[in-house]
């Protein structure tokens, strides 16, 4: 047997190398798909799916196959996460484009400008209260003399890749072996928001790693006890200064673990978890006491939306009815969620039945899957549900992995058929979650510009205008703009970008009503993208408070050109598509 | 203290020092491991040696990166709360301060290093697969960068801003060529009174041209400035256009405005331009010249010759977005009592037409005319609808003491 060990090791090494090479080829196919999208050529979507499957299938087969060394499974998981970060970078290789990323770019630029984390961000007031991401990025950008985009992309990628290893370790703590833990980590890796959204430059990305690190240390890492106590409290502190929702989830999970351990008469663990929870709550209270009251207000809106009090606090896929994926894709996505639900239920029961405070905590956490789905159905808020899915699929993926293994064991037939069934189930989850994940199907490949539409609403024309405005109009100006332009102007020129000034844009002329509006809102500049008069917004609105009817017809060109006729309005910038008008002299007219 | 501990610790120190001191891109390449791996890795290494704890690969990866990110996040908060500026030096010192104790602990640890079993040597096939993977990733990066560059549609940016740093206000005009080829451009800066400056330059693809123009303090503030950019391969059509509006607060009331030269003035709440009789005024590609005025039964009749100097058809608004401002000593009063009584509604490109505008009769106009001291200002009326693309506006003529007849 010992004679065959080197041979086996070489064979395993070759399998891993081939799987990684295939995944790299998948990345290349996706790069070609994005190139086709940018050239507006046909077949970009088909190439994208080919690339995704080329990455997925070999790595998944390596994870589900028997007899693979644990560190090879770990390497497969890390490769999967690395390809996700690479694909995310390929989508937008020179600038951040997603609005949430640009909100954090603003905070990072303010930090870089003022050399302190105590800054303000009018476009996302909550962000400076949780500056962990920006602190890490500023450190890397300062020491390495690199741009915020480069530093932020590296930070997000490193955290995303490390999270794959962290989830693998967490699943092992729940009593899963390398094989099952790798399946759990693989399921989590393809959760709806995980491949793209959670790999972005947003505060959730490092916070997830810190949360899993804290939970791993608290729930039973093999490090010395005193050491784990200090490190886990430090990780909780890190989560608290990085992301509000993740901090709340972390403290809830720790409290849940303490309760379950107490119920199981696992007094030692219950005491440790309770002390950690209390320490975390004290740290959170202390931290929030030094911050603005924005935190409470910011968190209240989504919670109210969840219980149906208000529905306009968030925007999401519920509005994108005109751009929903096809019927087959929808059936596939709902099938994935249904199968996942069945597996979560089965796995949660198995976890509960097996006993142990960590497993039972995971079972209770996994049940949150149904709470999120219920919330989705009751409120109709798809965005909030898919974001919450990240948290519930952390224990949920452990339950799914256990259920998959149980089903495979109970399934009669040869081992290869069981492995095939496991692979097919995982592939169904992968495709279904990908369909409902980010980006939405209508912008799954970059290229075609769409007005006021997240990543696809950003191109060289409006980015160039925003870059010019950095020096051209200076920071902290009140700028009226559409949703797409505002996400850029809130970031690079550090403007107070107002996407709710739609009455100014819809007005057919600069009359006394417009002047009053300009004066009352204190508007200093207006950004006019002439494509507002050509394209309908796929998201259903050009502005946050759209007073027009953009579903039917775009804004009249005459309404956009009225700025050229205002005798005291300056047109400071023109690139043929985007124009920047100075309203300050016009504003003084009303005084 | 053994060499196998001192050497890695020294390497970590050199990595950090190199990252903080070397210029980009070498500094950037060193900074990533120095900041995102070394702080956490040093502590994991030290704890392994001090306590005999042996983390698995997933734990080691997780803790190394988690502790590194954690030290930067919490360290940044600490520095900010202590009011220490977040500069390259403070970040480097922070990371050094967090890493050095771990390295010292590791160097002086009594416990032996538990070495991992040696990894088997990769086979030739595995090496080939790794090379294929590296090649695919390199190709993907190349495809991405080239396709992203070609996605950007050609455009030229024209930007104007007033700079107030120097003694005289300057106009800083920037032109950026993103047309993906070299192009020659001409900049034309003009006021309603005529051209102020003209500059020409060839800009390489991706190049930036910054032109500072001294247009004079008074003129810059009190008159509209139009900056037109022409491409030399399309010299007749303005390719980009910017405009700096006159500063309303710098404009005097029209009753004080001398009519010896075109200038801006305030007519009521509207900004107008006073033009002497016989002088011409150019707005939006329309060149207007007042031919003369006369009073007929209390009505003021102004004859204006308008030439469409642009390459587009222009609609001359016959509904009267024009305003008569009359005032002498009292507060400015305005009335929208002008209407075009003669002249084509649409002016073809390069076409010329004569318009007769009639004002009044009304008591205020008649009184002002009788006194012979009123200035006549035609200014845009913001309340009027603007159905036209380019309309005749901003022309005026002073009224002589005896307004029966005026020299053309």
Label this structure with key terms.
heterodimer, A: 591 residues, mainly alpha, five-stranded mixed beta sheet, 65% helix, globular, B: 408 residues, alpha+beta, four-stranded antiparallel beta sheet, 8 helices, 20 strands, 31% strand, elongated
Question: What does this molecule look like?
Answer:
Chain A is built from 22 helices and five strands. With 591 residues, chain A is mostly helical. Chain B has 408 residues and is of the alpha+beta class. Chain B is built from eight helices and 20 strands. In chain B, the strands form six sheets. Chain B has a five-stranded antiparallel beta sheet with strand order 10-11-12-18-16, with no helix packed on it. A four-stranded antiparallel beta sheet of chain B has the order 4-3-6-7, with no helix packed on it. The interface between A and B is large, with 119 and 110 residues.
List the helices and strands and how they pair.
The complex is a heterodimer of chains A (591) and B (408).
Chain A: H1 5-38, H2 44-64, H3 70-91, H4 99-114, H5 132-144, H6 148-173, H7 178-189, H8 204-220, H9 225-240, H10 244-263, H11 267-290, H12 294-306, H13 327-354, H14 357-379, H15 382-410, H16 415-436, H17 460-472, E1 478-480, H18 483-489, E2 496-498, H19 502-506, H20 512-521, E3 525-529, H21 557-565, E4 570-574, E5 578-582, H22 584-588
Parallel strand pairs in A: 1-2, 1-3
Antiparallel strand pairs in A: 3-5, 4-5
Chain B: H1 3-21, H2 26-36, H3 38-51, H4 57-81, H5 88-107, H6 124-151, E1 155-163, E2 170-178, E3 183-191, E4 194-203, E5 208-213, H7 217-222, E6 225-231, E7 240-244, E8 263-267, E9 270-274, E10 280-283, E11 286-296, E12 299-308, E13 314-315, E14 322-326, E15 333-335, E16 338-342, E17 346-347, E18 352-359, H8 363-371, E19 375-380, E20 395-398
Antiparallel strand pairs in B: 1-2, 2-5, 3-4, 3-6, 6-7, 8-9, 10-11, 11-12, 12-18, 13-17, 14-15, 14-19, 16-18, 19-20
């Amino acid at each position: 047997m010992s004679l065959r060990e080197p041979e086996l090791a070489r064979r395993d090494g070759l399998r891993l190398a081939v799987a990684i090479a295939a995944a790299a080829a998948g990345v290349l196919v996706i790069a070609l798909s994005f190139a086709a999208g940018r050239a507006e050529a046909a077949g970009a979507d088909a190439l994208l799916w080919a690339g995704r499957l080329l990455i997925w299938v070999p790595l998944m087969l390596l994870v589900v196959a028997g007899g693979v060394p644990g560190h090879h499974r770990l390497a497969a998981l890390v490769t999967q996460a690395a390809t996700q970060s690479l694909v995310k970078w390929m989508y937008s290789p020179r600038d951040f484009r997603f609005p949430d990323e640009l909100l954090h770019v603003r905070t990072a630029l303010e930090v870089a400008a003022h050399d302190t984390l105590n800054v303000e961000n009018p476009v996302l007031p909550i962000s400076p209260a949780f500056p962990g991401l920006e602190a890490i990025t500023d450190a890397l950008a300062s020491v390495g003399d690199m741009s915020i985009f480069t530093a932020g992309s590296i930070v997000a990628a490193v955290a995303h890749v490390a999270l794959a290893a962290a989830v693998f370790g967490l699943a092992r703590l729940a009593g899963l072996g390398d094989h099952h833990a790798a399946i759990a980590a693989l399921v989590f890796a393809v959760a709806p928001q995980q491949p793209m959204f959670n790999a972005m430059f947003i505060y959730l990305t490092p916070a997830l790693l810190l949360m899993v690190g804290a939970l791993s240390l608290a729930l039973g890492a093999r490090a010395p006890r005193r050491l784990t106590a200090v490190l886990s409290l430090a990780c909780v502190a890190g989560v608290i200064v990085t992301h509000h929702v993740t901090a709340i989830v972390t403290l809830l999970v720790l409290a849940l673990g303490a309760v379950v351990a107490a119920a199981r008469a696992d007094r030692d663990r219950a005491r440790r978890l309770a002390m950690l929870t209390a320490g975390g709550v004290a740290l959170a209270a202390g931290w929030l006491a030094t911050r603005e009251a924005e935190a409470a207000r910011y968190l209240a809106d989504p919670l109210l939306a969840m219980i149906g009090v208000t529905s306009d606090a968030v925007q999401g896929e519920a509005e994108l009815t005109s751009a929903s994926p096809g019927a087959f894709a929808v059936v596939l996505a709902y099938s994935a969620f249904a199968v996942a639900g069945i597996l979560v239920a089965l796995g949660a029961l198995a976890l509960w039945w097996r006993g142990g405070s960590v497993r039972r905590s995971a079972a209770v956490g996994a049940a949150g899957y149904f709470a999120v789905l219920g919330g989705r159905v009751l409120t109709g808020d798809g965005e909030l549900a898919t974001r919450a899915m990240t948290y519930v699929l952390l224990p949920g993926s452990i339950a799914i992995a256990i259920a998959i293994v149980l089903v495979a064991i109970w399934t009669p037939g040869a081992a290869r058929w069981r492995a095939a069934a496991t692979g097919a189930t995982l592939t169904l989850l992968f495709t279904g979650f990908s369909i409902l994940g980010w980006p939405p199907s209508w912008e799954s490949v970059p290229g075609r510009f769409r007005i006021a539409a997240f990543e696809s609403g950003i191109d060289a024309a409006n980015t160039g205008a925003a870059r010019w405005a950095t020096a051209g109009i200076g920071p902290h100006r009140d700028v009226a703009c559409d949703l797409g332009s505002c996400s850029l102007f809130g970031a690079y020129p550090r403007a107070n970008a107002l996407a709710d000034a739609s009455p100014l844009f819809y007005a057919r002329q600069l009359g006394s009503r417009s002047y009053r509006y300009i004066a009352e809102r204190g508007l200093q500049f207006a950004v006019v993208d002439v494509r507002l008069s050509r394209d309908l917004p796929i998201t259903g609105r050009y502005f946050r408070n759209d007073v027009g009817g953009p579903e039917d017809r775009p804004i009249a060109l005459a309404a956009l050109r009225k700025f050229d006729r205002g005798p005291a309005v300056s047109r400071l910038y023109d690139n043929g598509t985007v124009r920047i008008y100075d309203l300050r002299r016009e504003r003084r007219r009303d005084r | 203290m053994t060499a196998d501990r001192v050497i890695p610790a020294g390497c970590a120190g050199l990595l950090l020092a190199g990252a903080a001191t070397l210029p980009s891109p070498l500094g950037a390449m060193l900074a990533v491991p120095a900041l995102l791996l070394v702080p956490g890795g040093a502590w994991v290494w030290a704890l392994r040696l001090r306590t005999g704890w042996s983390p698995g690969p997933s734990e080691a990866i997780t803790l190394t990166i988690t502790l590194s990110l954690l030290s930067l996040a919490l360290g940044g908060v600490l520095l900010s709360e202590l009011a220490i500026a977040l500069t390259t030096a403070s970040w480097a010192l922070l990371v050094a301060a967090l890493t050095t104790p771990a390295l010292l602990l590791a160097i002086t640890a009594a416990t032996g290093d538990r070495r991992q079993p040696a990894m088997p040597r990769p086979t030739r096939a595995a090496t080939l697969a790794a090379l294929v993977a590296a090649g695919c990733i390199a190709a993907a990066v190349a495809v991405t960068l080239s396709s992203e560059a070609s996605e950007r549609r050609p455009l030229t940016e024209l930007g104007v801003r007033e700079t107030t740093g120097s003694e005289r206000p300057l106009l800083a005009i920037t032109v950026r060529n993103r047309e993906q080829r070299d192009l020659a451009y001409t900049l034309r800066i003009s006021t309603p009174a005529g051209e102020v400056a003209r500059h020409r330059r060839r800009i390489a693809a991706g190049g930036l041209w910054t032109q500072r123009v001294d247009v004079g303090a008074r003129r810059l503030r009190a008159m509209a400035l139009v900056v037109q950019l022409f491409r030399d391969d399309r010299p007749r059509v303005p390719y980009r256009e910017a405009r700096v509006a006159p500063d309303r607060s710098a404009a005097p009331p029209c009753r004080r405005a001398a009519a010896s030269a075109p200038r801006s003035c305030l007519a009521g709440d509207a900004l107008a331009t006073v033009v002497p009789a016989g002088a011409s005024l150019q707005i939006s590609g329309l060149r207007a010249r007042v031919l003369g005025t006369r009073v007929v039964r209390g009505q003021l009749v102004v004859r204006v010759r308008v030439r469409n100097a642009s390459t587009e058809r222009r609609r001359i608004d016959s509904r009267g977005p024009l305003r008569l401002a009359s005032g002498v000593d009292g507060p400015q009063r305005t009335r929208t009592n002008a209407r075009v009584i003669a002249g084509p509604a649409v002016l073809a490109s390069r076409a010329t037409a004569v318009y007769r505008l009639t004002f009044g009769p009304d008591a205020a106009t008649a009184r002002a005319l009788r006194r012979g001291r009123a200035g006549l200002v035609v200014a845009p009326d913001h309340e009027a609808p603007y159905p036209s693309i380019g309309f005749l506006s901003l022309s005026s003529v002073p009224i002589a003491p005896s307004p029966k007849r005026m020299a053309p």
